[in-house]
């Protein structure tokens, strides 16, 4: 990559201009995005103005914002040069991480987590998954480095999605023989009554978010085949009692809705060669009034235990629609 940058003399109002030259015009088109959508996203997030002149991009704004925008543009162009696409999520991740997270990554044993120029990537059958925030990056590292991990934070921060991605990565690379995904079958504030069908049909509505994540990383026919072979299992928490989960990657989602007894039962299922991930949001407990959350209890009891890691997320780590972060922050201010 040969990108040249030039900072021009001050413009009226002490605004400077940084000019970036990109040698490959076809990659520059992809960098800008359809109707310059990627440039508009960078402008909105960083408070700069970006103008295109041939194979040049002129970045105007305050010094710090201009420098960050230039770093983001150069990083995304390098991504395109390596043969990977750039979408809105990639732009968002580049803006959030910038170059603050760059450094030399260290593999944890023989994992297939890839550290390239400070990037953390998780390979699956359908896509390469990249954390978009520093908290997500630290979380993915923890998933590879610890046998028991907790991911705690609000909805939309990628806790379960990243955990399932790492599980698929370890499964397809042969580090584990099974993927087991579970969550408590607790209704979110409403009574659904008796659901028709067999056991699978009754619990599927509760498990749908886990199916969605799996289908993002593996072809649907392969998911179906692996489930038939019991190499991928998706089951309610209550079905875990009495089992020893060996050589498996195990995820418990929505753990705030597990009771203390259920949480202890689940944690003690951990078998030889397995890894376990517990995810939850302490603000969305749907247990009956007066019933303590097993997630909060485990957090209190297991803090400081060797081999157990806790990763925490905030509204700043939300990677859904930007409005979701503002909604979470508003509820937090209200104490809800």
3D architecture notes:
- The protein has 336 residues and is an alpha/beta fold.
- It has eleven helices and 13 strands.
- The chain has helices at 25-32, 37-46, 63-81, 88-97, 134-145, 159-172, 199-217, 220-228, 260-267, 294-302, 322-334, and strands at residues 4-7, 16-21, 49-53, 56-61, 114-116, 119-123, 128-129, 148-152, 178-183, 232-236, 248-252, 275-280, 308-312.
- A six-stranded parallel beta sheet has the order 10-9-11-12-8-13, sandwiched between helices.
- Helix 5 crosses helix 6 and helix 6 (159-172) packs across helix 7 (199-217).
- The termini are far apart.
- Residues 99-117 and 188-192 have low confidence and may be disordered.
| Helical coverage, percent range | 25-40%
Question: Would you count the extended β strands for me?
Answer: 13
- First-residue to last-residue Cα separation: 49 Å
Q: Describe the global form.
A: globular
Number of helices: 11
What percentage of amino acids are in beta strands?
Answer: 15-25%
Largest sheet: 6 strands, parallel
Physical arrangement of strands within the biggest beta sheet: 10-9-11-12-8-13
Task: Write down the overall mean pLDDT.
Answer: 81
Index terms:
19% strand; 11 helices; alpha/beta; globular; four-stranded antiparallel β-sheet; six-stranded parallel β-sheet; 336 residues
Brief sketch in words of this structure:
With 336 residues, the protein is α/β, with parallel strands linked by helices. It is built from eleven helices and 13 strands.
């Amino acid at each position: 990559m040969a990108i040249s940058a030039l900072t021009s003399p001050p413009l009226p109002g002490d605004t400077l201009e940084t000019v970036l030259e990109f040698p490959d015009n076809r990659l520059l088109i992809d960098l800008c995005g359809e109707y310059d959508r990627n440039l508009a996203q960078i402008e909105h997030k960083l408070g700069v103005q970006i103008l295109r002149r041939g194979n040049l991009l002129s970045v105007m704004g305050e010094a710090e914002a201009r420098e960050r925008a230039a770093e983001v543009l150069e990083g995304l162009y390098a991504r395109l040069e390596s043969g990977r696409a750039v979408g809105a999520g990639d732009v968002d991740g580049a803006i959030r991480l910038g170059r603050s997270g760059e450094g030399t990554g260290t593999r944890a044993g023989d994992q297939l987590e890839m550290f390239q120029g400070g990037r953390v990537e998780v390979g699956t059958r359908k896509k390469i998954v990249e954390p978009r925030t520093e908290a997500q990056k630290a979380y993915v590292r923890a998933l590879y480095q610890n046998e028991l991990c907790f991911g705690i934070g609000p909805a939309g921060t990628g806790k379960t999605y990243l955990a399932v991605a790492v599980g698929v990565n370890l499964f397809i690379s042969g580090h584990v023989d099974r993927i087991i995904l579970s969550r408590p079958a607790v209704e979110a504030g409403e009574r659904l009554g008796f659901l028709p069908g067999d056991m699978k049909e009754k619990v599927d509505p509760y498990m749908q978010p886990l199916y969605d994540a799996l289908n993002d990383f593996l072809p649907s026919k392969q998911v179906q085949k692996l489930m038939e072979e019991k190499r991928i299992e998706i089951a309610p928490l209550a079905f875990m009692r009495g089992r020893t989960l060996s050589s498996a990657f195990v995820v418990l989602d929505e753990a705030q809705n597990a009771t203390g007894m259920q949480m202890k039962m689940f944690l003690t299922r951990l078998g030889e060669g397995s890894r376990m991930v517990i995810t939850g949001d302490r603000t969305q407990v749907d247990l009956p009034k007066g019933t303590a959350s097993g997630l909060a209890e485990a957090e209190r009891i297991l803090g400081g235990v060797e081999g157990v890691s806790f990763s925490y997320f905030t509204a700043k780590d939300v990677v859904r629609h930007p409005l979701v972060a503002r909604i979470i922050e508003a509820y937090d201010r209200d104490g809800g």
